[in-house]
Amino acid sequence: MSGFVFEKHSQYCVLCFTPQLEAMTQHEVESATAVVPELVRDAQTQAVLVDLSRLQKIPVGLLPSLVLAWKAMDAADRRFVVFATQSSIREELKQTGLSGLWTVVDSADASIKALKASDDAGDVIDPATHLDKANQALSNSPDSPIRMQSQKRFNSVQFLPTGMTMDWHEVEAATSDVVRRLRESEHLSVMVDLSQMPMINSGLIASLVRIWKVMKERDGQFSLVSPNENVTDVLKTAGLWKLWSVVENREEAVYELGVSKAAIVERHERRFLLLVAVLCAVIAALALIPTYLQQSLVMGINAQLTALLFASAAVATGFIAVMRDSGIYRVIACIAVVIGILVVSSLAFESSPVSFSRGAHKTNSTGKSK
Length: 370
What we know:
Strand order of the largest sheet: 1-2-3-4-5
CATH topology of the largest domain: Transcription Regulator spoIIAA
Oligomer: single chain
Radius of gyration: 33 Å
Structural class: alpha/beta
Shape: elongated
């Protein structure tokens, strides 16, 4: 069923129309949606949710199929809800007079209120949940050149060789669906898998760029799996190699995203080292206070030795954190190292109880006095 996904539930059904219809001619739309009234009739439900949220306009030839589907329902207690986010679509339904016969809404929450149906378990329907399942089924259909799956900590997008032979509009429609789902996803990391691609054309490269831009807009992570040399050479020629993290297998890609078990453990280790470095630097700095408050010589020496001990630990752990971390965490580690070095350098201060210069001065004075 090209152009839409149909889902039947116990007391309602869902018709999710895709951007593929917008690239079809009127005759193709009518042929693709001719089965819609029959599906609604066979479902024998009193509630239908029509999802037009992914369309920018109503394809010519779609409305007759929707009208026939509406008429196929029992007029006594039918609920025909149309979910459309585009104001132009809602305005068109208003001009045709269909908005007076159907319930037209602009959000998933409004669909819940308008539908007022129950599933097998008696729970209130969440149309957004069922539509997302329908969209996932569409993206993972055998005909789609791009498949997307939501993993535990990241999203996985796989390009298939069929995209090389498909029409540009079909690839564009599949890409738009993936882009929309990435924007709605709670995950901020995506792994794009090109391992099955023997070659890649400009249309698929444009799809990769669109996916990358979406993750960049969300401040997310983007990792690309490209074991084939021909594909990698094309990416290098296009100048995309330097922009993306390109690896040869999925395990490396997941590690680069920082969502693998090894990456998570390593990140925790880096955070622990940074915490130790900062705490040691702070303690070392505070330990110097008694030294310069004219306390007793013994207290001053003990404070100085304590400061030197923690300062050495701050420099050691901070240096490791600087080498292994990045971004703001590296900056914090650098600050901890600088504080540690400043504390260690306090040995050269004349006022320090264990100052090297002071000790040398006393020796010289004693030698002269003798």
